[in-house]
Amino acid sequence: MSPTDRIRDHAGQGATTVAAHRARRRLRADRARQLADLLRHQILTGDFPAGALPHESALATDYRASRNTVRQALDLLRAEGLVERLPGVGTVVVAQKYPHGLDKLMGLAETLREHGRVTNEVRTTVPVPAPAPVADRLRLPPGADVLYIERLRRLGGLPLSLDLTYIPLDIGTALLGEDLENTDIFRLLETLTGTPLGHAEISLEAVNADAHSAAVLDAPQGAAVLMLERLTHLADGRPVDLEFIRFRGDRITMSGLLRRSV
User: Fold this and answer.
1) What is the per-residue pLDDT for 130?
2) What is the DSSP letter of 257?
């Protein structure tokens, strides 16, 4: 074999070695994400009541993973702010996410009543001409006035969500004299209209926090937040509450019970 052929052969073997090494790294990263997902679920459902995760060696045994994979998984959870490593203690849970159900029509204070008191900072309450998409969804004439409400909602003193709400003015005018700081709008709507709420159409997506939302929620600008869009109807079918709710994704988790229908 000529020197040139030997060099080419050696380079080819090197390329194969590099490719294999990269494949192993990708595989370990995949396994780390899988393990992080399992551990995150255990953290959020309270499977570590003492607040400390098992030792890395125990996790490696329980999940049949390498120590390196376990460390990478814990690094992912640490980057999310869920856990922290304390010298002499190990990996401990340092943050809590609050469960928000998607299978019941409830206000935030009703949903989280077991976790503490939700407080509302009413930042804006003002009649405005309804933007065309708002008027359309609330079944109002183009340009009709609506009551616009902006609230910062906290749980345990920590910012949890920024709620932007549009309500038809015939109902909204009565809301102006109510205690919006301490009462869910859902409860007020039922009281003022004398009609129970019926159903809501919802959509949920992740969006990047704009400068205003980030400042109000005390979150980094550009951080991902959960945006819940909800159009709520009275039991008679009338739409009465259009909301755009931005939740801090590191403080809330959404869940629901789905049944298969074909």
Assistant:
1) 95
2) -
81: tokens are 């702010």
Residue 127: helix, strand or coil by DSSP? Answer: strand
Q: Write the burial class of residue 63 (CB in 10 Å: 0-12 exposed, 13-18 middle, 19+ buried).
A: middle
For the chain (262 residues), the mean pLDDT of every run of 10, in chain order, is 57 62 73 92 83 91 91 90 86 84 87 86 95 96 95 92 96 91 92 95 92 91 90 97 93 86 75
Spatial CA neighbour of 184 closest among 197, 201, 168, 173: 197
Give the closest residue to 125 by CA, choosing from 161, 175, 73.
175
Cβ–Cβ under 8 Å, residues 166 and 185: no
Q: What is the DSSP letter of 46?
A: T
* C-alpha to C-alpha distance for 70 and 33, rounded to whole angstroms: 10
Record the tokens describing residue 174, joined without a space. 């009565």
In whole angstroms, give the CA distance from residue 152 to residue 61.
45
- Contact between 83 and 93 under an 8 Å Cβ cutoff? The reply is yes
- Nearest to residue 223, comparing CAs of 154, 153, 159? 159
Three-point CA angle 144, 150, 151, nearest 5°: 150
Rg (CA), the chain: 25
| C-alpha to C-alpha distance for 151 and 181, rounded to whole angstroms | 9
Q: CA triplet 159, 174, 132: central angle to 5 degrees?
A: 75
Which amino acid, 216?
V
Amino acid at 22: R
